[in-house]
Design goal:
alpha+beta; Phosphoenolpyruvate Carboxykinase, domain 3; 4-stranded mixed β-sheet; 3-stranded antiparallel β-sheet; 11 helices; about 45% helix; elongated
Length: about 400
């Protein structure tokens, strides 16, 4: 902190990032999503482009021979992992997917939005990457959706990360360090700065008195230099007294809040930090990483938002249909005091409680709102999850193509 200069302008509220507009989720009753033998309506693809791709592979007639069926979502895997095209065709990959968990009752690709893509690809799923924040779930299960849009919105949207990362980034820039001092350290620093200021003022006074030692020009230059240094010290002392102590205290309390140590406050103290400073980006990455690690209770995760394509081993799923449609209003968007909001979350809690007590290896909640309308799939173990496009997946696909 010592010697740091800061521009202490009047603060103002940080503008909230306007959330992106997401595409309408596809119908969760599509043929790929029903696994219980019910009547299957015509599929509705995510968007026209993907529908055209699937039409080419699934419905185009080549003379009298119909091309092989390709799973919905395979095209997205190839888009994200272009090296797959050097190993085999999209049709081969679709067949290969069926061999991953041959006994699973769910045969389709699902999605998982994550802010720690690089770590998941490197280490795979574990209890550290479970969905503990999913409306009261403390069991450490794993959550997935059949909606790509839902995975993008709930998983990789920066709305949660960005909200606090920018505030922490601002604090780092204010102090010009990632090691934010405690209030005790700030008061000690104020004392040091005051001593420096006192010494400068004494030097200025001495130079003014010793006229016969320096030439007038040299003495004037020295005095002006000391005066500028004194002004900087006064600014630093003023900032630390009037803002720095409060900001640092809010920072440490806010970090504890995000870790789950809420104390007596019902609102995160980080929300009280406002600023007008234009951020340089110097501390952006470290601030995002810090928030991710605080939320996950880890130390070395990297913020890397991306949607993963997943295949699940669901041999004995418990299934519940909430019966919502895209015409219904999302109860999660209502006020928390609204009876519909309470009723919806209560249904989720009851379902999770039933699932916890059951011996089922997995669960499916159909036609529910996980912000957007979709089906949600839950597994109890990391071993039930296969990440498409991972190193293991690529090697397994090579073996499949070689042997078939």
């Amino acid at each position: 902190m010592e010697g740091t200069t800061t521009n202490y302008n009047q603060t103002k509220t940080i503008p909230t990032k306007k959330p992106e507009t997401y595409r309408k989720p596809r119908n969760p009753d599509s043929p790929q999503e029903n696994i219980d033998g019910e009547a299957k309506p015509e599929p509705k693809s995510v968007n026209e482009k993907r529908a055209e791709v699937l039409k080419i592979f699934n419905n185009q007639e080549n003379g009298t021979k119909k091309k092989e069926v390709v799973k919905e979502g395979v095209d997205f895997v190839f888009q994200q992992n272009p090296e797959l095209a050097n190993i085999g065709t999209i049709e081969q990959y679709s067949k290969y997917i069926d061999t991953i968990f041959p006994e699973s009752k769910l045969k389709d690709i699902v999605y998982h939005g994550t802010k720690t893509y690089e770590d998941l690809i490197k280490h795979g799923f574990s209890k550290d990457f479970s969905g503990k924040s999913n409306r009261g779930d403390k069991s450490g299960y794993f959550y997935f959706t059949n909606s790509l849009e839902n995975a993008e919105y709930t998983g990789i949207s920066e709305r949660n990360i960005d909200q606090y990362a920018k505030k922490i980034e601002y604090i780092h820039e204010i102090f010009n360090t990632t090691d934010i001092p405690t209030t005790k350290e700030i008061y000690q620093n104020i004392g040091d700065l005051k001593n420096k200021l006192k010494k400068l003022e004494e030097d200025i006074n001495d130079l003014s008195q010793k006229r016969n030692i320096f030439t007038r020009k040299k003495r004037h230059t020295q005095i002006e230099t000391h005066k500028k240094e004194a002004e900087i010290l006064k600014e630093q002392i003023d900032f630390l007294y009037n803002e720095g102590v409060t900001i640092a205290d809010n920072y440490h309390q806010g970090v504890n809040y995000l870790k789950g140590e809420k104390g007596h406050n019902s609102v995160n103290p980080l929300n009280a930090i406002n600023h007008s400073k234009t951020l340089s980006g110097k501390f952006k990455e470290v601030s995002q990483d810090k928030i991710v690690n605080i939320l996950f209770g880890t130390e070395d995760l990297k913020y890397s938002p991306k949607v993963l394509s997943i295949v699940l081993d669901m041999r004995d799923p418990i299934i519940r249909d909430l019966g919502y449609s895209d015409k219904d209003e999302n109860p999660l968007l209502k006020n928390k005091t609204d009876p519909e909001f309470y009723e919806y979350n209560n249904k989720q809690a009851e379902f999770l409680d039933d699932f916890n007590k059951s011996e089922n290896d997995s669960a499916i909640q159909k036609n529910m709102f996980d912000v957007l309308l979709s089906n949600v799939y839950i597994t109890k173990k990391a071993e039930q999850i296969h990440i498409l496009g991972s190193d293991q997946d690529i090697n397994d696909f090579k073996d499949f193509v070689k042997n078939n």
